[in-house]
């Protein structure tokens, strides 16, 4: 049985080996030595008896062929066996579909179905525990695979899988760097330019290795009591604490005081084996400065599979948050301008009527009854202008506190604002507003979202069409809420652009549009713990776009209020 001290030591050694391997791979200029180092490191980290790294090499003619390295066993013991084929057992690795980890590979349903051996060939080393991890490049190319085996069953635990996956990622970067160097060497071979470039490349690689050693991302670990166990140089740089100051201290030291109470919940999640990826939250430095950060956290397990702590990668995203806040503010101003133009158009009609009615009243001054009739009509038009002005102020007046409101009513008001523009453009509006629920929301933000969706739909129908606006209540196992949909039969959005429409500055419009309207809409909806969806087609027979937003009911679901949401440190 491994005690806590021994396990802590082993975890520390594993982390150090991963860092050392990454630096070693970054500096290697020889591919066989590089892959051998990766194979050896994986063997040491996962506790296998033997391992192999099968990898593809592209020669000068651009042709690919398979090579391999071994660790833990002599090469002669594998020399008489053919290279592995794309069978059901090996396919997930060679196709890059995922990691395969088996406590007893001989009992796997994919095992033993392929001729001529129907399993392991005669003379092959016995394999029961099996671990295979694909090595995948940044563009998705499968560069090879790391394979490890042991004659005993149930040797490889989850932590072994995570550790070897880290080595595979490091090896992929190093192999792609090697390919780049080889390609450049072939282009400038036998020339002074090539020699100079190689010197510069070597210098660049050294610089890259130095950057890896002093990563901009903080990397640290803690145990299940919240005590910090490791702390890299980037963490010192970001938070201001040296390794000597912080190691052994509580993680609460870098968590804002108002979030201290959440630590028990955080540790419960870690004990449950949950992983957290790219979670955005706030942390505090030694000087008291608050930082917006993105966290990725994974449980750390000991040799028996018991979770003993957590490893964390932390990135400072304060500048990104400031930029996003500026975009949101800019879009608020732009949205107010667009609405002002629409309101001005609608106000102009009653004002012209008032002018005409006053003229008629003056022209018939001797007929008191006629004058009263004209002035009464003018009074009605002025009241209409007043109503429009009050309605507009109600939409866009800033309100820090969310309140309960009807999404149906907001939709009706937005439709009234845009109805004249639709009429002028030959667009028919179809309403289906059937929700009876109240939603906790900020009216100005949600009105801005609805207005943006309607404006986009109008723009998509330059020759007229049908604009459908619907609101309905929904219930599902994931919760209850209200869905608002804005549908048009316009030109549609090409399939290759759909995944990008919520990106900042991306627009499908050729002459107008900033490309931040839907980006801001997504931020607002997610700030209400909601979702925004899009469906679109450019097919001649069914072209058009349907934008839908889902907002949950209940105060606890509003991101802008104080809630029991959990920090993840």
Can you describe this structure?
This protein has 15 helices and 17 strands. The chain is an alpha+beta fold. Helix 1 runs antiparallel to helix 6 (192-213) and helix 13 (443-459) packs antiparallel against helix 15. The radius of gyration is 32 Å and the shape is elongated. The two termini are 30 Å apart.
Quote the average pLDDT: 80
Categorize the overall geometry. elongated
The largest sheet is: 5 strands, antiparallel
N-C termini distance: 30 Å
Write down how many β-strands occur, each being a DSSP E stretch of 2 or more residues. 17
Q: Which consecutive residue ranges, at least 5 long each, have pLDDT under 50?
A: 395-400, 559-569
The portion of residues assigned to helices is 40-55%
Q: Record the strand order, biggest sheet.
A: 2-1-5-4-3
Query: SS-based structural class?
Result: alpha+beta
Q: What proportion strand? A: 15-25%
Supply Rg: 32 Å
Number of helices: 15
